[in-house]
Amino acid sequence: xxxxxxxxxxxxxxxxxxxxxxxxxxxxxxxxxxxxxxxxxxxxxxxxxxxxxxxxxxxxxxxxxxxxxxxxxxxxxxxxxxxxxxxxxxxxxxxxxxxxxxxxxxxxxxxxxxxxxxxxxxxxxxxxxxxxxxxxxxxxxxxxxxxxxxxxxxxxxxxxxxxxxxxxxxxxxxxxxxxxxxxxxxxxxxxxxxxxxxxxxxxxxxxxxxxxxxxxxxxxxxxxxxxxxxxxxxxxxxxxxxxxxxxxxxxxxxxxxxxxxxxxxxxxxxxxxxxxxxxxxxxxxxxxxxxxxxxxxxxxxxxxxxxxxxxxxxxxxxxxxxxxxxxxxxxxxxx
Length: 335
What we know:
The chain is of the alpha+beta class and 335 residues long. It has helices at 2-15, 34-40, 44-47, 61-72, 119-155, 160-183, 191-199, 219-239, 276-280, 284-297, 328-334, and strands spanning 19-24, 29-32, 80-85, 91-102, 108-117, 189-190, 208-211, 216-217, 247-254, 263-270, 301-307, 310-318. Helix content is 46%, strand content 23%. The strands form three sheets. The protein has a five-stranded antiparallel sheet. A five-stranded mixed sheet has the order 7-9-10-12-11. A two-stranded antiparallel sheet has the order 6-8.
């Protein structure tokens, strides 16, 4: 029975995903399982009999001496994170648990270490910190946008009721864009999905034709272009006409010599003439969003034109300020 138990324990140690290493009081390695071989690059034959300093970086040598000192005093050592050295010289971040090994007489004869590679954990934590900083940055930007919406809507509203209605509509438009981003973990939203999402409330009122190539927009572009589409839709619902060929939303990409020189162009065209003069006067929050806020946020330009009984709004912006998945240097410029 005892032999059977010992065999089971040995099998557990060998099959463990954690490196399990034992050493005597002189610091020499006594046992070394398969996980230790994978983690540190030395075979059992190469490691057993060698000093534990085989895998201890020079700046961690005092740490090993302190561990043995505390074990000798009977102190409990809590699990802690440190680094050990792989055979190829690279440092391996690990979480390590130290336990004393005692003889049948109760005397301390060595120590057992269970080490777990935390490289992936640390990388996940690093990415989480980056994500939290990015979210904090985006949230602050949205606070600024919301404050601008409130301020500009207040100055242009004829009544409290009108103010409340327009504010609710604009905040909901931002919310719709956030919904799209959250569905893809803020990794990028296709232009087609953004247009379709923003046009949903309008489809029963007016026919809309949306055409353009596949392009994934980054978070900043999604929020700003979504806000622009909302204002265009609201203008069309308030002042537009149902005559003619309906509304069209088209976009195109010119790649240029590189991503840095590529350009994104979005065009909204509708058979509306009743509010052309209002747009030309550059008044109202909608005009502020379409002609100043959105182009500025994307380092682009926007302009209105009127021809053949149609009103056209065109936005052009550098592709690097719109498209997701560009090199880090370009993404940093767009934040």
